[in-house]
Amino acid sequence: MTTTDEPRSPRIPKRLRPMIWTVAFLSVCCIGAVVAVVQLLTDQRDDPNQETLLAGCGSNVEIDPDAEFPSIGGYGSDQIRNAAIIVAVGQEMEVPSRGWIIAIATSMQESGLKNLANPAHPSSMELSDEGVGYDHDSVGLFQQRPASGWGSVEELMNPAVAAEKFYDKLLTIDGWENMALTDAAQAVQVSAFPDAYAKHQPTAIDIVNTLTNGGARVANVSTELGSCAAAGEISAAGWTVPVRAPVWSGFRTPERPTHYGVDLGAPRGTEVVAAAAGTVITSECNASLNGGPYSCDVDGSPEVAGCGWYVNIVHAGDYLTRYCHFGQAPLVQVGDTVQAGQLLGYVGSSGRSSGPHLHYEVHLEADRSPAGAVDPVAFMEQMGAPLGEA
């Protein structure tokens, strides 16, 4: 068997087949929505008046077992079929959908979502495969090693069994639901490249949302689809609201066309938390008046320039979030790694501010400039952490 051979379909346990056919249909009917969401966020840099798409939070649909899988994020139908198997196994094992995202991102890094044989195990070359890998004696979707005790070659070359073994290990890790995706994946895989999984998180989220009509928007500890993460909870996508407060001022409104974020009307002293896991790249005072420095330890005013005490965090997928107008120096420093929901500081009114509130921004491609800014309301809606809920 060679990489140019037509891949043979892997055997799937009968108990999993109805679930797999269900997600097959969902992937076909919902792919347009995912593409539209990505385009929406990108287009907002030029047109802030784009409408926000409504986001589902998971559903089940009876479908035709002959349905075909579409391509998603550069992955072909056979690869998405493997992702669907990973999701189906997670559903049967009652693993929260956060685990599905972690598992899919892991397989994306390890095998490109392909069931790979390995010449180091000649028997794997006689089994159903979608290509050949050469990493030690690793095989299958997750490149698990029989020599390391993951299971037999035949087991690991079965995508459903390989996924089950991945979840078995993940579920032994205390607090995995709240860990950064790359940390949770590394705790399972023990890879020589521990940070490599993070870059796959956005596409893994898109795949899960497509296959399940929004399953990444439920709470990260939820095993049931259909109910969105509540304000203050962390979604399966790994995001949470930075502060529970109403939106006072929107993104690039006609009245404030250079307002590149939203103002969340929280009282002075309200806790501000990281919206997702990431790395702090800015933690400083940014304030001036009439060209001279201005203290961030006192309230500012509309005449003061700058964000006051503020923090920038870069997240998986090169998303950047900005938090402005803290009442005192932030509790995190440049270089700190933070988790979703971790305390950053407290609402204040430093810098250009007419009263206590949190100014919150989201940027794409880690671009700190206005050119990278997108509407936080639309972005957070898609990540399962809608703003504006007190």
Question: Can you put this structure into words, describing what you see?
Answer:
There is one protein chain. The chain is of the alpha+beta class and 390 residues long. The protein folds into two domains: 204 residues, no CATH class; 136 residues, Glucose Permease (Domain IIA) (Distorted Sandwich). It contains eight helices and eleven strands. Strands 1, 2, 4, 5, 6, 7, 8, 10 and 11 form a nine-stranded antiparallel β-sheet that branches. A two-stranded antiparallel ribbon has the order 3-9. The longest helix has 27 residues. It is elongated, with a radius of gyration of 23 Å.
What ranges have pLDDT less than 50 throughout 5 or more consecutive residues? Answer: 1-40, 48-54, 61-66
The amount of beta strand, in percent, is 5-15%
Assign the structural class, choosing from mainly alpha, mainly beta, alpha/beta, alpha+beta, or little secondary structure.
Answer: alpha+beta
Number of helices: 8
The string of secondary-structure elements, in order, is HHHHHHHEEEEEEEEEEEH
